[in-house]
Design goal:
Blueprint (H helix, E strand, L loop, with lengths): L4 E4 L3 H11 L5 E4 L4 H6 L5 E3 H9 L4 H6 L1 E3 L1 E6 L2 E6 H5 L3 E3 L2 H14 L4 E2 L3 E6 L7 E6 L2 E6 L2 E4 L17 E17 L8 E3 L6 E5 L5 E8 L9 H12 L9 E16 L2 E2 L2 E3 L5 E2 L7 H22 L3 H4 L1 H23 L7 H14 L3 H12 L6
Parallel strand pairs: 1-2, 1-12, 2-8, 5-14, 12-19
Antiparallel strand pairs: 3-7, 4-7, 5-6, 9-10, 10-11, 13-16, 13-17, 14-15, 15-16, 17-20, 18-19
Helix pairs in contact: 1-6, 1-8, 8-10
The structure holds arabino-flavin-adenine dinucleotide (FAS) and P-hydroxybenzoic acid.
Length: about 400
């Protein structure tokens, strides 16, 4: 096959990249190693920055989002038996959109399929070749048959465990990493959320997050020990912790648990995000702890920058935006890393934390919920910093 851009990975990054290129008349092919149904059912992020939901509407894939998403003005921070609202709309003029990542993925796949953009699902043995030349290739196997895509550029959108980042000679990459001594156990439940907006709860038993997907479906998380196994957490045990960690701030209705999984927590960045004609975007280049709800939003920001750079190459013969791709993305990525780390260190119980640390966390929460300046820094980062080109 021949395409101007070969994309590896049909997650938010790969799909949005293909859509943005398509809208500029640039043809792309996506190869994905999972099935369409697996990709569309994978429960992950749930919160879009204002500009991301606006982008989905502007690019013509936001109709269902406009009908079904929940549009929030802020979040609640619960600690010391009380709940405090941080009003992003009042502080920054922006809100956030609650719309499951799997819904975004479904909407993007439907649009790309309608537009005739090839998405090859269930491919195997994907590999990239000739990255240093001007005709890189993607090889793969589909239904046991070998396949190949000759292209001008490769979008490495295959996530943290993909093949693209490892295809770059290790000596050329610098990685930055922080592991956290805990993870999140998340459940999707048929139960009404305890509040109209998200509640981030600090508690001596550990952090908990009360999010949602609709007025009748909740997305709930509890902090668990690093390396914890989901089999050790019965539904009853999860509900008990969720009740305790809500600290009497709200009552929590229980319901059928539809999905349960544990997400490890890490901060990770690899630099640079480019090697020849291969451009890393999204989780293939960076991971944030989900506390700041940045993962999906940073992935979309990367591909907005990449689509703009590739378009300038084809329409004006420019390579300067391609050359600046990594630095442009990393500016936003590191601000997202800082914010995600800050939210994580403020809200979680660290096993090696001292009594001083816990009092300092409570003071930080008291400061954020009593100072307009402090609340505004949380609001502008959470709702989404302006895009910088
Ligand atoms: P993705 O990982 O979404 O997509 C990569 C795609 O590439 C996948 O479809 C994968 O199947 C495919 N792929 C991988 N290797 C391949 C290969 N060799 N060949 C072909 N295809 C290949 N973010 C939040 O903001 N909030 C959350 O609550 C949250 N929860 C998360 C829970 C989990 C378990 C995980 C793993 C991530 C979570 N994230 C969360 C982060 C998540 O939302 C990512 O930021 C987002 O999916 C990034 O999108 P992509 O970069 O497209 O990567
Ligand atoms: C979610 O709804 O899945 C969600 C929301 C906010 C976060 C993390 C996850 O910080």
């Amino acid at each position: 096959m021949r395409a101007q851009v070969g994309i590896i990975g049909a997650g938010p990054a790969g799909l949005m990249l293909a859509l943005l290129l398509r809208r500029r008349g640039i043809d792309a092919v996506i190869v994905e190693n999972r099935s369409r149904s697996y990709v569309e059912q994978r429960v992950r992020a749930g919160l879009l920055e204002q500009w991301v939901s606006d982008l989905l509407v502007e690019t013509g894939v936001g109709a269902r989002l406009t009908r079904e998403a929940m549009f929030h003005d802020g979040i609640h921070l619960a600690f010391g038996g009380k709940s405090h609202h941080v009003d992003f709309r009042k502080l920054t003029g922006k809100g956030v959109t609650v719309y499951g990542q799997q819904e975004v993925v479904k909407d993007l796949i439907a649009r790309l399929t309608d537009d005739g953009v090839p998405i090859l699902f269930e491919v195997e043995d994907v590999a990239v070749h000739d990255l240093d030349g001007d005709m890189p290739r993607i090889s793969f196997r589909k239904n046991g048959e070998p396949g190949e895509i000759a292209c001008d550029f490769i979008g490495g959108c295959d996530g943290f465990h993909g093949v693209c980042r490892p295809s770059i000679p290790a000596g050329l990459l610098t990685t930055y990493e922080r592991e956290y001594p805990f993870g999140w156990l998340g459940i999707l439940t048929e139960s009404p959320p305890p509040a109209d907006e998200l509640i981030y709860a600090y508690h001596e038993r550990g952090f908990a997050l009360y999010s949602m997907r609709s007025a009748t479906v909740s997305r709930l998380y509890v902090q668990v020990d690093h390396g914890e196994e989901v089999e050790r957490w019965s539904d009853a045990r999860v509900w008990e912790e969720l009740h305790l960690r809500l600290g009497g701030v709200r009552s929590l209705a229980e319901g059928r648990v539809l999905q349960k999984s544990i997400t490890p927590m890490r901060s990770f960045v690899t630099e640079p995000m480019r090697h020849g004609r291969l451009f890393l975007a999204g989780d293939s280049a960076h991971i944030v702890p989900p506390t700041g709800a940045k993962g999906l939003n940073l992935a979309v920001a990367d591909v907005v920058v990449l689509a703009r750079a590739i378009t300038a190459f084809y329409t004006a013969g420019r390579s300067d935006l391609l050359d600046a791709y990594s630095a442009t993305c990393l500016d936003r990525i590191w601000k997202g890393q800082r914010f995600s780390w800050w939210m994580t260190q403020m809200l979680h119980r660290f096993p090696d934390g001292s009594a001083f640390d816990r009092r300092r966390q409570l003071a930080e929460l008291a400061y954020v919920t009593s100072s307009t300046a402090a609340a505004t820094t949380l609001a502008e980062n959470y709702a989404g910093l302006p895009m910088t080109w």
